[in-house]
Each structure stands twice: as structure tokens, then as C-alpha cells.
Amino acid sequence: MGNTVAREDFEWVYTDQPHADRRKEILAKHPEIKALMKPDYNLVWVVVLMVLAQLTAFYLVKDLDWKWVVFWAYVFGSCISHSMTLAIHEISHNSAFGNSKAMWNRWFGIFANLPLGLPYSISFKRYHMDHHRYLGGDGIDVDIPTNFEGWFFCTRFRKFIWIVLQPFFYAIRPLCINPKPITRLEIINLLAQLSFDVVIYYLWGVKSTFYMLAGSVLGLGLHPISGHFIAEHYMFLKGHETYSYYGPLNLLTFNVGYHNEHHDFPNIPGKSLPLVKKIAAEYYDNLPQYNSWIKVLYDFVMDDTISPYSRMKRQLKGEVKQD
């Protein structure tokens, strides 16, 4: 049955998110950080190599026994797929080609999306910008779980299932919390993805197609890298909304673990976030931080005071501008 957690609602706060004020303070004290606000052109070549690696894997698994298809989907495909979602995260911030070539980034995001098997890039960008502008905003920030998630996934066993099903909840949550009209680019993203999937099935068959889709689902569910979903903003310590992770998996995730630094400076590519921490160490060294995403997952399940309700939430005031 598991133990029921005590929390019965989100942590409602009536202050602004801390990142804008800290950004102003840091830039006033360390103006040299502005030099890091530029595209990371190496990201383009890394993404191209990742796409080629997955295409090679699609070919190599086409004649394997099913048990080995599943094995490689989890051991290799899931890592590449989850890493690619974080490359798309970088691209959503225009890190590949810069803000002056925003559409180049959108098209490149659609290309990076292809080996995931499911259309993701364009919709993610629209909702992710809301997450940065209105962190914890009620009815706007779809990174916040629904009330149903908080109410139902309230025991250790149910929290474990919630982690396994995270890809499902991230997919349907926008439709429940903040549905938006479909855009032309989202339709293009969908058609490009369906065309790619059909080509993979036609060329290499059902095993390659399964490997592609299973790798994406498994990589975003019960997987060490998925610890970042919980580590970033779940309130393990009261009053702290964003947490950074400084462990080795940053090498596979474009430094998404440097999450306080990222929210303070979303226009600085992940490659340069360790430099932000080094330059402004007095602002980051004493903030709560993690060194293991696996431990975050374990603690989330086993700590009866933590649940999907363990998020700060805000009632937004004034005009809300969304993508």
C-alpha cells in the first residue's frame, strides 16, 4: 500500500521568482558574464553526430532478437534520446544559431527531433518559454503537476509509477493545464516526424521503429538522467525553488544540471554555465545542490514528505504574454 505523504496541496507563494533579481545583481557585480551570451555553434555538430549515431543504431538493431532490441533501447537509445531532448532544450533558447536567426533554430530543432520518433521540438519551445517567464505560474507553467497527480500519486508505490509514466504526464499536462492553438510550425514538425518514422519502418522494419520509440519513452521515464525532472524544481528544502546538480551526467545533458545558473541566464548556452558558476561562485556555492540524480529519484519515492505537490506555485498578476 505504501505510506501516504502529508502534503495535500502545492506550496503557494506570493513573491516573484528569485532569478530576475539575482541576474541583475550578478551582472552588476560581474559584467564580464555578458560575453558568454552568444551561440554555441559546436551544438550544431554535436546534434548532427547524435542523429547519425541513432541512424546507425536503427540499422544495427533491425535483425537482432527482440530481447537485444529492448536491451539496447534502454542501455543506449534511451541515453541518446534523452540527451537529444536536452539538445532541443538548448535549441529552444536559440543557442545553436543565436537570437538573430530564430527560425534557423526552429528548423534545426525539427531536424534534431527526428530520431526521437515523436513530434516534440516546436511545442516544447512554446511551453518552455512560459516556464522561464512565469515559473510556477498557476495555469501557465505546465512543468507544474496537475492537482490529480498531486492527489493520486501520494504513496511510495504510486510515486514510483509516476516516475515511470513521466513521459505520458509531460505529454498530456499541457492539454489539461494550458492548451494552445496549434501553429503552422507544429504541423510541419508533426508531418516531418511522421514522414521520418514511415521511412525508418519502410527501410528497416518494426524492430528499428520500436527501438526508436522505446528509447524515447524509456529514457524519459525510469532512467538515471530523468532525475533532472525532479531535481530542478521539486522542493526538497522549504523555501528553495530551483536546485542545481553538479554530477557527471551533465556531460550527457548539455549541463542542464546547472539549473540555477540556467534560470538566471537562459540566454547563455549550457556549455558556458560552469563558467557562470565559477565567475559568480559567491551566489551559487551556498545554494542547495545535488551530486546524484539517482539519489534524487530514490529520495523522491522514499521520502514521505515529498510528492508531486512539492512545488512552489504562484497566482500570476497583470498581463500574461505567452508564445
In words, what does this structure look like?
- With 323 residues, this protein is mainly alpha-helical.
- The chain has one domain (11-314).
- The chain is built from 15 helices and four strands.
- The strands form two sheets. It has a two-stranded parallel ribbon with strand order 1-4. It has a two-stranded parallel sheet with strand order 2-3.
- α3 crosses α10 (206-219) and α7 crosses α15.
- It starts with 10 loop residues before the first strand and ends in a 10-residue tail after the last strand.
Cα(first) to Cα(last) distance is 42 Å
Categorize the overall geometry: globular
Number of strands: 4
User: What is the count of distinct domains?
Assistant: 1
- The SS-based structural class is mainly alpha
Question: Number of DSSP helices?
Answer: 15
How are the strands of the largest sheet arranged? 1-4
Uncertain regions: pLDDT < 50 for 5+ in a row?
A: none
The radius of gyration is 20 Å
- Mean pLDDT across the residues is 95
- SSE pattern: EHHHHHHHHHHHEHHHEHE
Residue share in β-strands: under 5%
Q: Tell me the helix content.
A: 40-55%
User: Mind summarizing the main beta sheet?
Assistant: 2 strands, parallel
Protein name: Sphingolipid delta(4)-desaturase DES1
Family: Belongs to the fatty acid desaturase type 1 family. DEGS subfamily.
Keywords: Endoplasmic reticulum, Fatty acid biosynthesis, Fatty acid metabolism, Isomerase, Lipid biosynthesis, Lipid metabolism, Membrane, Oxidoreductase, Transmembrane, Transmembrane helix
Organism: Spizaetus tyrannus
Short synopsis of the structure:
This protein is mainly α and 323 residues long. It is 55% helix and 2% strand.
